Structure formats: C-alpha cells, structure tokens
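Hi V.,

You were right to ask for the full record rather than a summary. Here it is.
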Amino acid sequence: MKKTPRGYFVLLVLVFSAVFMTLIAALTGYIFVQKKLQLANENRQKAANIAEAGLEYYRWHLAHFPNDLKDGTNSAGPYVHTVPDPEGGTLGSFSLTIGGSTFCGSVTDVSITSKGSSAADPNYARTLFAKYTRPSVAEYSYIVNSNVWAGADRVISGPYHSNGGVRMDGTHNATVSSGVATWLCTSSFGCSPNATKAGVFGAGGPTNLWKYPTTPIDFNGISVDLVKLKGYATSSGTYLPQSGNGHYGYKIVFKNNGTFDVYPVVGTTQIWGNPTGLTADWTQERTIMSSVSSPTNYAINPACPVIFVEDNAWIEGTVSGKVTLAAADVVQANVDRSIVISNNITYAHTSGDGLTAIGEQDVLISLQSPDVMNLNGIFIAQKGRFGRNYYCANECDSGHSGNEGLPAALDSYVTRSTLNTTGTIVSNGRTGTKWTSGGGTFLSGYSQRTDSYDRTLAAGPPPFTPATSDDYKFVLWQDQTIPF
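Predicted structure:
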C-alpha cells in the first residue's frame, strides 16, 4: 500500500491557513474602513447641523438686535460658540463671520458664514453661507393691487401676483397668483357679458401654476417711507429740489461710469392721453419734453446710492452700480410726483448693477419711446399705475367727442413693436402697455411684450427696495465646504 507523505498535509494546512488569515485580514480591514467612513460621515453631518445651528442662532440674535453685526461685542469676528450636549459635555462649536450691506448708515441685509465642527472629530468641518434679509418685491416679475389682464402676446418669467383677479392669456414659467377666489370680469377685461370668474382664468398657462386665493400682498406695507428716503438723499445721497415756476421737473440720464446727468425740463408738449381706454377718461398730459436746460453731472455715492427728486422725473440711460431713485413731493400736501421713462434703461455690467425707481404716483412710458424698448430695473408706482397711456392718431379725432388725436408729427409713435422688461413691476393700479379694440385690433402701445424678473436682484436688490414681508428670512443658502 502506497503512503502519502506527511509533509503534504502540513503544506495544505499552511496554505489554507494563509488564505483564511488573508481573507480575515481583508474583511477586518474592510470593516474598519467602513466604520471609519461611517464615523467621518456622521461627524460631517454633525458639523453641518452645528453650522446650521450657527445660522439659526444669529437669525435669533438679529431679531433682537437688528443692526448688530458684531455678535453683541465691540470686536471683529469670527465669533466662536460651543454647542452643549443635553446629556453632558459639548456636541461641538461654530465660528461665525458676519458681514452685511450698510447704506446711508442703515443695515439693509446681513451675510453670515458659519463654520461648524463636531467635538468628536474637529477635522471634519462644514461651512455654510446665508444671506439674511426681508424678502423684497424683486422676487416677482409683477405685483399689482388691482384686477389685471395679461394678453396672449405676453411671455412672463418669474412669479406674477395680483391682489385682484387675473385674466392670464399669456405664457409663463412660474406661479401666477391672485388674492381673490372669484371676481367680476367686465368688458374691459374681454368679458361680454360680465361674468364671475375664478381668481385666475384665461387661455394661457400652464394652468397648474395658477394659485388662488392666496394671501394678498399689503400695499401699505410695501410702500416706501419717502420722508426717510429724502433724508438719506439730503444727508448722503443726491437731492434735487422742486424745479420752480416755468419748469416741469428733471431729465435724468444715467451713464455707464457711475454718474448721471440732470437736465432741468423747461418745456413740454401737451397731448391727449387715456389711462383706461374709456372715452370719458381722456386727459391732457405733459409727458413729452420739448426743451431742457444745460446738464449738471452728479456721481452716485456708493455708500448711499439714493436719488430723491422732489418733482417729476424723466429717466433713461445706462446704470452702473445699484441705485434707488424716487420722485415724490413730501412738502406740498396732495401733490404727487411721477416718473416718465423716455428711453431705454440698461445696465453697464452683466451682474452687480440694479435700479429701483419709485414714482409717488405713476411710472409711465412716454409716447416718444423706442420702437423696441428695453427696461432693466424695479419700477414702483406707489399710488398710481405703471403703463403706457392709450394714444390716438390725428385722424381718429372724428371718432371722439373731443379733439383727442395727436399732432400729425407724433402719429408714428402711437404703435410700437416690442417691450422687454427685466426686473419687477409694482403697480397700485391696473397696468397697461397695449391697447386693442373690442374686436382685438391692435390700436396703441407695444404689440409684443416680454417680462422677466431679475434673479440677481431677487437676492440683492438696490437699497431700500420695498419688502413684501416684515419677517426676515434666508434668501440665499450655500454649502461652501470643500468636498473630500
């Protein structure tokens, strides 16, 4: 009988033992690595939670001390706080770096950077950044305190809100909201006979973005304190007083170097205009400048970029930086001033520029406006309306009871081609930049209109842009942690 050598079994045992030990070592190493990764993820998540606790802490602090950017100290940051563990000890700590925008001596928004780390392993830190301010009207493309009709030619980007009813025949990519459940649609909104309609109705869409009724936006709440704004302009910005007898206000031309030219308006052309399209509402207006005096150049003060005009203002040009302009009379009772947009308003840079233009009464587009008009900015008609009045060519006189037709030399301005608005329209009254007959024939205004809200201004509007809520909130939130 043949015998198997004993050494062969010993060799097999050694080989299989080595394989087994290798597998055990690999498995143990894998478990160890997974456990380490799990702990790392757990500590990173704890660090994120602690960093977020830092943001929430300073939000609480600002609710009690709105203008404090030094965490209750007189020292520069960062400001370190430990987070106690309810079961004893500490969970970790956060370090705050506080910044903010201060204009005219008043804090308008606060930037908070919070770096959090877990006490279990401070190596895994997380850094969060947030901008804290009251939400402003810049988050909308339109806010109207009246019933409104958006025509089929309208292309709207950004939230659109009316405190009244909305007939939406245009297309849009964001929420269209109404503050009412139902409203009476009349012939001026294309309903014949009059009919009760849902808060938002029409042939536009998408309809799944229509919301009604929603909480109305308080127009008293979003009204600008014009007296305070005048104070800022007088002390640190630019103040233009009443232009005096024989003058009609000021023409303001923004320039791409951060300055603006101011021309006293010494002559205007009186024409007939109609803010509603109704026969009874024809009024004489002086929105067309016929002559101006020599200009004076002013620089926009970046520390207080506020222009207050105690008169009517015609505005146009290229804005560099962020600036707020108001046209109002806070001296004479029952005298309300308006803004007339006489030409394009654009920005000098692709980002960082912004205009908020506030008319105490109206913000109107002039009859003599470009055929293709581009408007950048936030335009607020505090008591009146934003729009372009209905105008009638010279030959239409025979169709009216009075002499409402324009001088023949102005007939070519009655109808215009395209109006592009980038920013926000806030109007107390019904807006209107296109006028049609009962049968839909285009009569006056702009044939095609495109409205887009400005995403960058939504996060950082010009100073003292009206807020839509008294409550501060985070309007921007970013994780600035460098990924592992």
